[in-house]
User: Which sequence fits this backbone?
């Protein structure tokens, strides 16, 4: 039995997917959270190394000229700056991983539907800026071949 999704149903479900994906920060939670952790780790190591170099510079070259002491307001300012930097890195990373996780999510959803015999009537397209743009053409060719293979009278392997 061949089931084909109508154009209107396809557009409605695509709109629903877009609405759901717009409201979710994480499309693929495992991939995106691992990527965020890696970015925070890399940035933290880089900030720590930079702090060590700057501290070494001040102690070695400006030892006699240091007049200030590190007090509580200074630490609060430093903590606030580090917090906002980390938050910015997390938000930027999540936003950038959407370009990878979005096409993967859409491809998996389309392939699961195709396995059930439901083929989209319109060609698959990814959002501008998404990774794997070339994958859309390959996916469309695969869906066309699958649809032709399911047609009545087509020889089965």
Assistant:
């Amino acid at each position: 039995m061949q089931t084909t999704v109508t154009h209107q149903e396809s557009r409605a479900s695509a709109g629903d997917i877009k609405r759901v994906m717009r409201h979710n920060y994480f499309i693929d939670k495992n991939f995106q959270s691992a990527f965020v952790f890696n970015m925070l780790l890399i940035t933290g190591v880089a900030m720590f190394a930079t702090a060590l170099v700057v501290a070494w510079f001040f102690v070695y070259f400006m030892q006699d000229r240091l007049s200030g002491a590190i007090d509580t307001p200074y630490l609060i300012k430093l903590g606030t700056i580090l917090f906002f930097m980390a938050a910015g890195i997390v938000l930027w990373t999540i936003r950038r991983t959407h370009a990878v996780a979005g096409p993967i999510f859409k491809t998996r959803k389309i392939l699961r539907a195709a396995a059930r015999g439901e083929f989209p009537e319109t060609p698959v397209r990814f959002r501008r800026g998404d990774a794997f743009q070339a994958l859309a053409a390959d996916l469309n060719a695969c869906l066309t071949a699958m649809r032709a293979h399911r047609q009545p009278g087509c020889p089965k392997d």
